[in-house]
Structures are given as C-alpha cells and as structure tokens.
Amino acid sequence: MAKTSPRRPSNKTSNQLRIIGGQWRGRKLAFPTVEGLRPTPDRVRETLFNWLAPSIIGARCADLFSGSGALGLEALSRGSGHTDLVDSAKPVSQQLNLNLQTLQCDHATVWHSQAQPWLQQAIPGYDIIFLDPPFGQNLAASCIEIINNRNLLNDKAWVYLEMGATEPLPHYPENWQLHREKTAGQVCYRLFKVEQA
Questions:
Q1: What is the pLDDT of residues 135-182, one digit of tens each?
Q2: Is the CB of residue 22 less than 8 Å from the CB of residue 53?
Q3: Which of 2, 10, 31, 171 is most exposed by smallest CB count within 10 Å?
Q4: CA dist 62 to 3, 8, 132, 168, Å?
Q5: CATH 3.40.50.150 is right for the domain spanning 15-194
Q6: CA angle 11, 134, 3 (to 5 degrees)
C-alpha cells in the first residue's frame, strides 16, 4: 500500500492531471499526493497514444498501478470500450471514482487492489494493458509472468511498459514483439505487440 505524504493538503487533491486528447481533451482532474505516484508525462502519453491510435477505439484495456489515471483516462477519452483502473492506494481509488463521476463515464471500473492478485482473477480478453509500476521495486516481471501464464491478452494485443531509464528490462515471452521503445529523461517506455500462437 502506498503511503500518503505528510505534507499533502487535507483535501488530497493538490495535483492536476490534464487529458491531452479525445472527447475530454483539456479537462483537468485532481489526483492525491501519494508516495511513488508520478503521472506519465504529457509528451510520453502523446507519443504512446499516437502509436496506439489505430487500436484504441473499442479496445478493452487495463491500467495497472493506475495512480493518477493518466493512461486509463486517456484511453477512455480516446474511445476505449472499457478500461479497468487498478491501484492499491485507497485515496487513489477514491479519487479515480470521483473523476469518472465528474466525466460521467460509465464504461470503466476502479479496482482497489494490488496488481498481481487482481491479475490472478482478471477475466481474459484484453486488447491493451498499461503496465506502469513504481520505479525500482521490480514489480513488472511478476505482472508480465501472470499476464502470460493466464493468457489475459487477445491476439494482436498491446502491452505498454514504463520503467526507470536505468532499470533492466525484465524477461518477457517470446511472442511479445518489441514494437516501439523510447527514453524521455528518467523514463524508458516500450510498446509490445503480442501475437498469440
């Protein structure tokens, strides 16, 4: 469980996330100050969703370690069919639900859970999974293993992986093809295409 900062304001909503594309473009939404929470930068999101543009409409998505909801809410704004937002911090989950209400969005579900146990019970059939764990905690490898072992992805699905630029790339399945890779400051981000046998 992430810890809240002792310096955060009492309303827990001192931070602002701006949606950069789609039906809610320009909307600003609050997110709480929680240790380790760092929204995916605007320029990284812009690049990622340019890569995903042909696939996002109607896609079933999961945003693991959702945090501010930068990735999941951006996917929803750009036309995803349904997005699951998963985070273990209660203030985060509460704010995500409030933001969905503000946007009058009824095709998303917020799950207050650690990513790994959530993946163990998730229903297969995802088109896009966003995997953006806290840096330096070696959480990506276990998630990748569960996603693969449980066959959670559709054929020609996408997995987005965001890590610290100095972190080693975890082992990934042979049928995950590295499609794009870029580094922006302290962030390295990769998009994999998954071809099922």
A1: 888 899 999 999 999 999 999 999 999 999 999 999 999 999 999 999
A2: no
A3: 10
A4: 23, 28, 11, 23
A5: yes
A6: 40
